[in-house]
Specification:
Length: 139
């Protein structure tokens, strides 16, 4: 503290400054959300060449305000469809994984898979018997 016991005030901040900063921060977050959504859409699209993708990225960084607006005008109509297609592919992959992991539900195929594991030595006879009992009980 300087002489006289008064603290040094480095900056005065009032309610208006805080409000303006909150508004600026909000629009900054919205801008980055739009930018990331555009970049994800751009790289999700397998129909575009690498050169076109690079040019779009260059436009985004050279013209940070108008680049995303131009992208949304030119390619915005297909963004929802590309996102939906990606979600469908992800759901199909997940469904296939669950089906492969859980088995077909057919006790004979589950017992066959367990028997194959027994033959390979991956499981013991007791584990095979347990899996066989579970397969027969689920039918």
């Amino acid at each position: 503290m300087p002489e006289g016991g008064q603290p040094v005030i480095l900056a005065e901040v009032d309610g208006g400054d805080i409000f303006v900063n909150l508004i600026v921060f909000f629009f900054m977050v919205v801008y980055f959300m739009i930018l990331f959504n555009i970049l994800f859409d751009l790289f999700r699209d397998h129909g575009e060449s690498g050169v076109k993708k690079a040019l779009w990225v260059l436009v985004m960084f050279v013209a940070p305000l108008f680049g995303p607006l131009i992208y949304l005008i030119v390619r915005g109509g297909g963004m929802a469809q590309r996102s939906l297609d990606a979600q469908k592919r992800t759901q199909a992959d997940f469904d296939k994984y669950v089906q492969d992991t859980a088995g077909t539900g057919d006790p004979a195929s589950q017992i066959q898979k367990a028997h194959d594991l027994l033959d390979k030595g991956a499981i013991s006879q007791e584990e095979f018997d347990t899996l066989k009992a579970k397969a027969l009980a689920s039918s």
